Amino acid sequence: MPGPAADARQVPFRNAKEEIRARIEVSEGGGDPQRLGGRGQRQIVWRNVVLMSLLHLGAVYSLALIPKAKLLTLLWAYFCFLLSALGVTAGAHRLWSHRSYKAKLPLRIFLAVANSMAFQNDIFEWSRDHRVHHKYSETDADPHNARRGFFFSHIGWLFVRKHPDVIEKGRKLDLTDLLADPVVRFQRKYYKITVVLMCFVIPTLVPWCAWEESLWNSYFLASILRYTISLNISWLVNSAAHMYGNRPYDKHISPRQNPLVTLGAIGEGFHNYHHTFPFDYSASEFGLNFNPTTWFIDLMCWLGLATDRKRATKPMIKARKARTGDGST
C-alpha cells in the first residue's frame, strides 16, 4: 500500500481531458528526463529520509508518554487509527482502486475524510500506484517491488524517486473513473489542507478540549504515534505479506496469506487471495472472519450506503486452489 509521496513535486490535478492529453504527450516523447533520471539510477529523496526519521523518532518518544496519558486519550488514538485505516482499506483500496463495490455520496465523502487522516497520498495517486502494483507486481514497474528486499518494499521505496517504469506504466492506465468522481477531485485539490486538519489538528485538539488532556500528550499520542503505527502496518502489506506466509490460491505469485498482517491491517493480510481475486470486495475467502473492513462494508450495505459487492464464487475459488495453489489451507 502506498505512503506519503516520494516525489518532491506532486503533479497538479488535471481534469479527464487534460490527463488524457498529458499521457499522449508523454507517449510522443514528452516527460521530464531530469525528473525521471537514468533508468538504472536511484535518486534519494533526502526530504523524505529526514521527515520519516524525525517521525519515527517522535513515535519512539511518544511511547514514554503512554503511562502519563488519560485512558480516553489512548482510546481516542485507537479510534483515529481505525478511522484512518478504513479510509485506506474500505476507501482507497477496495472502493477506488479495485471498484469491488459501489458507494453513495455520503459514504464516499466519509471515506475521503478518513483517507486524509491516513495521510498516505490522495485517493487518485494511491489508487493509480496500487493499480500499477497489481498489474506489474514484482517488476520494476511495481512502486514497492518486493524483489528488491524487505526494507525497500516496506519503507525504502519512499526514500528514492520512482523507477521510470512506474511512472511510464502509471500514465498508460485508464484512470477516467477516478477523475470522474467529484469526491476524488475535491480531495486531491485540497489534500494538503485536509491532511493538516484530519491527520494532525483534529486528533490533537479533541483530547485537549474534550477531557483536558495536555496538548503535548494529545499531539504525540493521537497524531504522531498513531500515524506512525498506521503507516507501518499498511507497509507490512507491501513487505511481510509479500514474503512470509502460505500461498493456497496461487503459488506462482509472491503475495502470501499472513495472519499477523491481517490482524493489524483490519483484514488486508489475505494477500495471496487478494492478488488472485482482486475484484472481491472482501479481499478474503472467509468473508467476515478476521476482516473488520468487510464488516464495515457490509454494514454500509445494510444501511443503504453501499451496493453491488463483487465476490468470487466458491466453485471459482475451489478450482483455482486445485489448479495453482500450494496445497495449504
From TrEMBL:
Cofactor(s) annotated in UniProt: Fe(2+)
PROSITE patterns in alphabetical order: FATTY_ACID_DESATUR_1
Gene Ontology terms describing biological process: unsaturated fatty acid biosynthetic process
Pfam families tied to this protein: FA_desaturase (PF00487)
Molecular functions (GO terms): iron ion binding; stearoyl-CoA 9-desaturase activity
Record key words, sorted: Fatty acid biosynthesis, Fatty acid metabolism, Iron, Lipid biosynthesis, Lipid metabolism, Membrane, Metal-binding, Oxidoreductase, Transmembrane, Transmembrane helix
Membrane topology qualifier: Multi-pass membrane protein
GO CC terms, sorted: endoplasmic reticulum membrane
Main location as per UniProt: membrane
InterPro entries, per database record: Acyl-CoA_DS (IPR015876), FA_desaturase_dom (IPR005804), FADS-1_CS (IPR001522)
Domain named Fatty acid desaturase: residues: 76-278
Transmembrane feature ranges: 44-64, 76-96, 190-210, 216-237
Subcellular location per the Swiss-Prot or TrEMBL entry: Membrane
Family, per entry: Belongs to the fatty acid desaturase type 1 family.
Domain notes: The histidine box domains are involved in binding the catalytic metal ions.
Protein name: Stearoyl-CoA desaturase 5
